[in-house]
Amino acid sequence: xxxxxxxxxxxYTVATDSNFKPFEYLNPKTGELEGFDIDIIKEIxxxxxxxxxxxxxxxxxxxxxxxxxxxxxxxxxxxxxxxRKESIDFSIPYYDSGMILxxxxxxxxxxxxxxxxxxxxxxxxxxxxxxxxxxxxAKVEAFPEIVTAYQDVKExxxxxxxxxxxxxxxxxxxxxxxxxxxxxxxxxxxxxxxxFSKGSKIxxxxxxxxxxxxxxxxYAKLYEKYFGE
Length: 229
Ligand code: ARG
Prior knowledge:
- 34% of the residues lie in helices and 28% in strands.
- By secondary structure, the chain is an alpha/beta fold.
- Arginine binds next to loops.
- This is Transporter substrate-binding domain-containing protein.
- It is found in: Cell envelope.
């Protein structure tokens, strides 16, 4: 009932996370929410004619909130899955991702085939946690914040962590140089989609706006801004 046709200048609450670099995070100096996802959804809102305000929360809380219809829009590097599609509507894909294994620089683990019996960290509610449970015999430790898992790998409390490639790469480049590395192939190609409450009427307009952002080169500029080396 809270959903208009998207062109009414209405303000929608966008559920997001505050710690999934470089997709969404708090700028340490200004405290402002920033990131690829934040810029993408702001631009979509501008082009589709609605306003957004952000609410940050844990990713698993976000999933639950989207599934129950509590939030009209959610953006948080969320992978489009068949299971989630049962209770959430998704935009067209806006980012190609996949999961990668992170281990200490001196680890013997060479790929996901070596993790059986090892302590591998992930994030609660994520596709990586599901993957580990369904495809390996690792001792899976799922945290409310993935950064805790990364720190534990760095300090030797975990043998590795499995998570989204762009986030793992970002962490290694900024806080894990000479201490952490990725091994093996990118597992399970996944696409991120913007989440909408089931039956939302704004999906079509949001998709049109997203497509125009891709087509006119704005997407490439944002990609360069956040993922350019
Ligand atoms: N892509 C993964 C998933 O959908 C992890 C996303 C985590 N996102 C976040 N904002 N913490 O499960």
